[in-house]
Amino acid sequence: MKKEPYRVNLPESGMVDYWYNVRVDMKERHDPYLNPGTGKPLKKEELLPVFCAQSVEQEYNETDRHISIPGGVMDYYRTFRPSPLVRAFNLERELDTPAKIFFKFEGGNTSGSHKLNSAAAQAFFAKEQGLKGLATETGAGQWGTALSMACAFYGLDLTVFMVKISAQQKPYRREVMRTYGAEVIESPSPFTGVGKRMLARDPESGGSLGCAISEAVERAVSTSGVRYALGSVLNHVLLHQAVIGSEAKRAMEQLGEYPDVVIGCAGGGSNLGGILCEYMAERLSGKSKVRFVAAEPSSCPSLTRGKYAYDFCDMGHVTPLAKMYTLGSGFLPSPIHAGGLRYHGMSPVLSKLYHDGYIDKAVAVPQNAAFAAAKHFARAEGILPAPESAHAIAAAIDEAMAFKERGERGVILFNLSGTGYFDMAAYAAYNEGRLTDHIPSDGELEQGFAGLREIAANAGQESV
Ligand SMILES: *Cc1c(COP(=O)(O)O)cnc(C)c1O
Fold first, then answer.
1. Distances (CA, A) of 281 to 28, 163, 374
2. Could you give the CA distance from residue 248 to residue 259 in angstroms, rounded to a whole number?
3. Which residue blocks in 170-288 are alpha helix, DSSP H?
4. Which of 155, 271, 459, 463 is the most buried (most CB within 10 A)?
5. Which CATH class is domain 11-16+81-112+235-459?
6. Contact yes or no for 330/454 (Cβ under 8 A)
7. How close is the Cα of 61 to the center of ligand 1, in Å?
8. Nearest-5° angle of CA 80, CA 82, CA 83?
9. How many whole angstroms from 95 Cα to the centroid of ligand 1?
10. How far is CA 305 from CA 196, 290, 292, 345, in A?
11. What confidence tens digit (pLDDT) does each residue in 14-70 have?
12. What's the pLDDT score for residue 156?
């Protein structure tokens, strides 16, 4: 019998009431956002028509290390936080590794992922500002679902532009959003300029995340009392996700454990940025030698094969430019099932940390390897992981095996960002051997990079 506890899950007392702002402790700040028209750093005021005022404030906040979570957000957090920290005893035994494996499980709420942490904050800020509602996009559906829940909680309208192909592949995701009261529009739609142009070019278009972002931004800036909300990439989203890491650190301390390596999957970077944050503070100050690993899909390898360059955050080029690891905003990833990881860029904060060597390693995981890890994990630990999270599991298993090979004890902490209940079509494809591993050739990536050179030239930046 194991005497050590499986879970640290102390209601209330395990919660934190602040968001830790890693930018305050970074040696160098990330390069500023640029206005693509002028090539000049973007001013706060330029974002106010797009985002809630408080989100913009937080986006630019590089001075407050700890930001109190407003009471109204805590009220909602209490319905699904703290999330459990779990020791993967069974997986450890099966791998026969001397390493201890811990994971923080963010999939316990109805939306099934960590995205609710930021959705709650952004919806609360919109309500406080007296807005009528929010507009957003969703690809795989997790962000749209999370924001639908949060908007229902705070009594706000929500319009979700859902990538058409995803809406058709995941009708149940759409129903969850509608149940919480959101209006779900398939993108490209005939209701925005961007959507109309897209449909004129290709009436059969299945849409893309980049196009849906452009449609949602257009809807927000052209409707009074409505702002846009984004579920990843930006500084304020990473800030909200810091609750994951702060809670995890608190729970690990109760167990008397300190990780040697912290792992997360990386799409736009928000769950990884969340789990690593307070450990990063100790690494930056020289107090700790903890390592950080980002796991991304081989089909959309922005950290492992992308360029560190200024790029648009969307395909329709309505957003500012951000300096980040990117495959180019024109890059169209293959339709892999880990939809939440199909993003061409990466959080500017994580990009900077990676560029400066504070995120030690990025690994690209092929889709079949991710599902193999997911299945292994599900059978050992009982939780059916989201395909996105499966990339982090694959990386964690690799680290556990490396400890074994070196004959070293070690402590691994990874973020299990969500559950896979809405991804059963992908699991079916895996179980039937129909999943393919598309790894883009250098030639395919070159097309996206060509766009980056053009963007650099237009913005007066050095070419990449
Ligand atoms: C959206 C999503 C991701 C990827 O987004 P990040 O911003 O990189 O965290 C990962 N896992 C799940 C379950 C998601 O829903």
1. 13, 37, 30
2. 11
3. 171-179, 193-201, 209-221, 235-255, 270-284
4. 271
5. alpha beta
6. no
7. 23
8. 80
9. 26
10. 33, 24, 18, 11
11. 899 999 999 999 999 999 999 999 999 999 999 999 999 999 999 999 999 999 999
12. 98
Residue 243: which residues within 8 A CB-CB, separation 6 or more? Answer: 15, 16, 19, 69, 77, 81, 117, 274
Q: Which residues line ligand 1 (CB under 6 A)?
A: 113, 115, 142, 232, 265-271, 340-341, 386, 388-389, 417-418
The structure tokens listed for 371 are 């599902």
Residue 343 has a pLDDT of 86
Provide the CA 419 distance to its chain's centre, in angstroms: 14
Question: Which spans in 129-208 are helix H?
Answer: 142-154, 164-169, 171-179, 193-201
- In the chain, the amino acid numbered 184 is V
Give DSSP secondary structure letters for 353-368: HHHTTSS-EEEEE-HH
* One-letter amino acid for residue 382 of the chain: G
What letters, b where the CB count within 10 A reaches 16 and e where it falls short, cover 384-412?
A: bbbbbbbbbbbbbbbbbeebeeeeeebbb
Q: 118 C-alpha vs ligand 1 centroid, how far in Å?
A: 12
pLDDT at 105 over 90: yes
Determine the distance separating the centroid of ligand 1 and the alpha carbon of 84, expressed in angstroms: 18
In this structure, the residue with its CA closest to atom 10 of ligand 1 is 388
155: its two tokens: 């009594």
Residue 190 pLDDT > 90, yes or no?
yes
Query: Boundaries of CATH 3.40.50.1100 in the chain?
Result: 11-16+81-112+235-459, 26-65+115-228
Angle in degrees, CA 224, 227, 230, rounded to 5: 160
104-113 burial, b for 16+ CB within 10 Å, e for fewer?
bbbbbbebbb
What is the C-alpha to C-alpha distance for residues 98 and 406, in angstroms, rounded to an integer?
Answer: 10
Task: Give the separation between CA 63 and CA 55, rounded to whole angstroms.
Answer: 15
The third-level CATH classification (topology) of the domain covering 26-65+115-228 is: Rossmann fold (3.40.50)
Ligand 1 atom closest to Cα of residue 233 = 7
What is the H or E stretch that residue 106 is in? none
Please give the structure tokens belonging to residue 222. 């052209």
What's the token pair of residue 309? 């360059």
Q: What is the mean pLDDT of the chain?
A: 94
Q: What does the pLDDT average to over 341-357?
A: 94
- In this prediction, residue 166 carries a pLDDT of 87
